[in-house]
Specification:
617 residues; alpha/beta; TIM Barrel; 2 domains; 9-stranded mixed beta sheet; 24 strands; 32% helix; signal; AIM6_PI-PLC-like_dom; Alkaline_phosphatase; Alkaline phosphatase
C-alpha cells in the first residue's frame, strides 16, 4: 500500500514554518549510485562527500556492489571497493575518516533485496574493521546506514547498535526507534513534477518544505533522492533546508560548494545612489566638444546584470537610453584579448592578439590621441591598475607583445597623451632608459606619485605613477581612485577651448573574471559604474560632452544561477578563466548618442568618435 498520498495530506501542520535555509559544505554531498563512478568510493571521498552509497546483493556468501543483478562482476565486492579503502584512509588520518576532523562520513548500504542474508553478511564483513565502524569511544567513527530493503522499525533493536537506518517521512517511529534513524529520505518525484529547472510551484514548494520541516522537528537531517544533478537543483534544495544533496557527480558538487565564497556576493550595505540624467542634450544634433570613453575591461552583460542586482536594481550606466552591441573579434581570432580589443577602439583597425597600437602585420598605427592632437584636443588616459597594461597602453604605445612593459613605458615619450594616471612605477622609474622620467618631465609633464599631488596641481600635463598598493582591488581597500582620477582630469582639461578626449578603464573587472571571483567582479564594476555616474553628471552640466561606456571583451563566461534584487544577492558560475567571444554592450549619452545604436565591429567606436568630435573643425 502506498501511504505517501495520505502522508502528504498530513504534513500541512509543518507548512507554517519555512525550513531553515543553510549554507552547505562539500561534506553534505551524498554520492548516490557511487559504485557507478569511474573509481568507486575514492572519487567521492576525495570530493569530500559526507555520505557515500553502495547498492549491494548477496551472492555466493559475499556482498557484491551493483544496481542490478546482471551487473554483478567478480571482485566488485563491498569489502574490496569500500571497506578496505575506507579503513586505509581512516587509519592514515589518525582514526578519522578525513584529516579535517570537522568532516564526518557515513556509508549507506542500499540493500537491493534479501535483507535476511544481506544484513548478517554485512555484520560479518564489518568485523575486521571494528575501529572504523563500531567504536563507541571514537566520535569520528564512520556511521553505517542501511537503506533499501530495510527491516521494519519495530525490528531495529534486533541489530547491533552501530547500525543505523535511512528513515522515511511517512513512517511513524517510537522514541527508541528514532534514535536508530540516521536521516530521513524520500523520492522527490513522489511529491512534485519539478525537474530541477527554475523553481517548484508554490504548492509543491510547500509540500517539500513541509517534509523537511517535519524531519527537522524530529531532529533528523533530510535527503531527497531522484533529483536532477544541476547547480540550480542544489541551490533550491539548499534554500528549502535539505541537509544532504543527492548527486551522481560528487566532484562537480564539491567544486560548486567549495568555491561558493568566490561565486556568491551579497551587498553588505544599502544601494549607492545613481545619477538621474536630465536628457536635455541626449541624442541632440549639436556639436561635440568632449568625449569620455569608459571601458569596463572584461565587462559583459552578465557582469552588468550581476552588478545591477547587487546594487538593488540600480546602475548609472543603465540610465543611458542609446545602446548598441560591439563585435569584438581580433584579426587572428574570434576571441580577442585586451590588446587587440583596445587597439581596435584606439586606432580603428583590427589587429592580432597581444599586439598594441600595431596592425596585424606589425606596422605602427595612428592612435586616437595622435589624430586629436592636430585639432588641439587634449587627451587623458586613466586606469585603476597598471598603466602599461594592454587597454591604456593601446592609446599611447606600439609593441608586438603586450608584456613589453618597459618598451610600453618608453613609448609614452612619443605619444600625444596629456594626462596619464595609473600604477606600475617600476616600468618608468627603473626603465632601461634610465633618463625616461627626466625626459618626460622635460616635455612639460608634472610627474608625481600620489593622488594628492595631482589634486594640488593645476598643470594640464600630468603623469601620475601610483604605488601598486594604491591600485589594489576595491574589496581590499582601494577607494575611489578611478572616480577621482576622472574628476581631476575633467578639472584640468575642461577649460581647453578645443575640448578633450578621455579614456578611463575599470581594469579589474577583468581581473575578477580571470580569477572566477564574483565578489571581485561586482565590487570593481560598482566602482566603475560610480565613475560612469560622474561622467553623466558632467555631460549634463557641460552640454557638449558625449559619454560612451563599453568593454573590450567579456571575461570568465559568467552565468547567473540565482539572484535577489531585494537582498542584493547574486550567485553565479564561470565557464572559463579566459575571455569569450561574446559581443559587449555600448551605452552612449549626450549629443549624437544615437549614433552608437545597432550592432557593429569594435573598430567603429574609433571611427564614430573621430567623426563626431572633429565635425566642423
Amino acid at each position: 500500500m502506498n501511504i505517501r498520498p495520505l502522508f502528504i495530506a498530513l504534513i500541512s501542520s509543518f507548512l507554517g514554518t519555512a525550513a531553515a535555509a543553510q549554507s552547505l559544505t562539500a561534506n553534505r554531498g551524498h554520492s548516490h549510485n557511487d559504485y557507478r563512478q569511474n573509481i568507486p568510493f575514492l572519487q567521492a571521498y576525495f570530493a569530500g562527500a559526507g555520505s557515500i552509497e553502495a547498492d549491494v546483493f548477496f551472492m555466493d556468501g559475499q556482498l557484491f556492489v551493483a544496481h542490478e543483478k546482471n551487473e554483478i562482476a567478480p571482485g566488485r565486492t563491498l569489502t574490496e571497493l569500500y571497506l578496505k579503502p575506507l579503513a586505509a584512509m581512516f587509519s592514515k588520518n589518525g582514526d578519522k575518516p578525513y584529516a579535517d576532523s570537522t568532516r564526518s562520513l557515513q556509508l549507506v548500504i542500499d540493500i537491493k533485496e534479501d535483507r535476511a542474508h544481506v544484513i548478517p553478511a554485512l555484520i560479518n564483513a564489518l568485523k575486521p574493521y571494528k575501529q572504523v565502524f563500531n567504536n563507541p569511544a571514537n566520535k569520528h567513527a564512520v556511521k553505517i546506514v542501511l537503506s533499501g530493503d530495510m527491516p521494519e522499525p519495530a525490528d531495529f533493536k534486533q541489530y547491533p547498535d552501530y547500525i543505523s537506518f535511512d528513515g522515511r517521512p511517512y513512517n511513524t517511529y517510537t522514541a527508541d526507534q528514532l534514535k536508530r534513524v540516521a536521516m530521513i529520505s524520500d523520492d522527490l518525484g513522489e511529491y512534485t513534477k519539478w525537474n530541477g529547472k527554475g523553481t517548484p510551484t508554490a504548492p509543491d514548494s510547500a509540500k517539500l518544505q513541509g517534509l523537511i520541516n517535519a524531519a527537522h522537528s524530529k531532529g533528523k537531517p533530510f535527503r531527497f533522492w531522484a533529483t536532477q544533478d544541476s547547480p540550480n537543483t542544489w541551490i533550491n534544495l539548499e534554500k528549502m533546508g535539505a541537509d544532504w544533496i543527492n548527486t551522481d557527480h560528487p566532484q562537480q558538487l564539491h567544486d560548486f560548494l567549495v568555491n561558493r565564497a568566490k561565486l556568491e556576493y551579497i551587498n553588505p550595505g544599502p544601494a549607492y545612489p545613481v545619477y538621474r540624467p536630465t536628457y536635455k542634450t541626449d541624442g541632440a544634433n549639436k556639436k561635440i566638444k568632449n568625449v569620455i570613453l569608459l571601458i569596463g575591461d572584461g565587462m559583459g552583460l552578465a557582469q552588468i546584470q550581476a552588478a545591477l542586482t547587487a546594487n538593488h536594481g540600480q546602475l548609472n550606466m543603465l540610465q543611458c537610453r542609446n545602446i548598441g552591441l560591439s563585435q569584438i573579434k581580433a584579426a587572428n581570432s574570434d576571441n580577442t584579448d585586451s590588446a587587440a580589443g583596445a587597439t581596435a577602439m584606439a586606432s580603428g583597425q583590427k589587429t592580432n592578439n597581444r599586439y598594441l597600437g600595431m596592425d596585424s602585420h606589425g606596422k605602427p598605427l595612428t592612435r586616437l590621441p595622435d589624430t586629436l592632437a592636430h585639432y588641439g584636443i587634449k587627451t587623458s588616459i586613466i586606469s585603476c591598475a597598471d598603466i602599461t597594461d594592454a587597454t591604456p597602453a593601446a592609446f599611447y604605445s606600439h609593441v608586438q607583445d603586450r608584456e613589453q612593459s618597459l618598451n610600453i613605458a618608453a613609448n609614452f615619450l612619443d605619444s600625444h597623451v596629456d594626462i596619464l594616471i595609473g600604477s606600475n612605477q617600476k616600468s618608468f622609474f627603473e626603465n632601461t632608459d634610465k633618463a625616461l622620467v627626466d625626459k618626460i618631465a622635460k616635455k612639460g609633464y608634472h610627474v608625481a606619485k600620489t593622488m594628492d599631488e595631482l589634486k594640488a596641481s593645476n598643470s594640464d600635463k600630468q603623469v601620475i605613477l601610483l604605488n601598486d598598493a594604491e591600485t589594489r582591488p576595491v574589496k581590499n581597500g582601494r577607494g575611489d581612485m578611478l572616480k577621482q582620477s576622472v574628476l581631476q582630469s575633467i578639472r584640468l582639461l575642461a577649460g581647453n577651448k578645443n575640448g578633450f578626449f578621455m579614456m578611463a578603464e575599470g581594469a579589474q573587472i577583468d581581473y575578477g573574471g580571470h580569477a572566477n571571483d564574483l565578489p571581485y567582479v561586482i565590487t570593481e564594476l560598482h566602482d566603475f559604474d560610480q565613475t560612469v555616474g560622474e561622467a553623466l553628471k558632467f555631460a549634463d552640466e557641460n552640454g557638449e560632452t558625449l559619454v560612451i561606456v563599453t568593454a573590450d571583451h567579456e571575461t570568465g563566461g559568467l552565468t547567473l544561477l540565482d539572484a535577489s534584487t531585494a537582498q542584493g544577492m547574486v550567485l553565479g558560475n564561470f565557464s572559463t578563466n579566459d575571455h569569450t567571444s561574446i559581443s559587449v554592450p555600448v551605452f552612449a549619452y549626450g549629443p549624437h548618442s544615437a549614433e552608437f545604436n545597432g550592432t557593429y565591429q569594435n573598430t567603429e567606436i574609433y571611427h564614430k568618435i573621430l567623426k563626431l568630435i572633429t565635425a566642423g573643425r
